[in-house]
Design brief:
By secondary structure, this protein is mainly beta. The protein contains 1 helix and 11 strands, in the order βββββββββαββ. The strands form 2 sheets. Strands 2, 4, 5, 6, 9, 10 and 11 form a 7-stranded mixed beta sheet that branches.
């Protein structure tokens, strides 16, 4: 049973990447999913989340640039990241929980309130 984030890489400022959060051993359609990131020397930051019904929330730093979505048939949640800038450089993690308030509060306050699952991160580097 695990989550795995993937899709990171090196991209130039202004570029785009799409991250994936895939589940194995359980079905994501019963879970609310959050994306977090942690840059070197900085605290973990909540980025975005999506409820099992598809309602979304975005942190101020990514609003208008990032889009979270889910494909339950593929057991995967995506984070489309556009207009990337060097401040977006970080390791990105996804996390899942059955309780929406746990995920939403976690993203809003950039804290782990006891998520059921955390995925291994994927590195995103924005640099020219």
């Amino acid at each position: 049973v695990q989550l795995q984030a993937s899709g990171g890489g090196l991209v130039q400022p202004g570029g785009s990447l799409r991250l994936s959060c895939a589940a194995s051993g359980f079905t994501l359609d019963r879970y609310h999913i959050g994306w977090f990131r942690q840059a070197p020397g900085k605290e973990r930051e909540g980025v975005s989340c999506i409820s099992k019904n598809g309602d979304t929330y975005y942190g101020d730093s990514v609003k208008g640039r990032f889009t979270i979505s889910r494909d339950n048939a593929k057991n995967t949640v995506y984070l489309q990241m556009n207009s990337l800038n060097p401040e977006d450089t970080a390791v990105y993690y996804c996390a899942a929980d059955r309780v929406l308030s746990t995920v939403l509060a976690g993203v809003i306050h950039s804290k782990d309130y006891g998520m059921d699952y955390w995925g291994k991160g994927t590195q995103v580097t924005v640099s020219s």
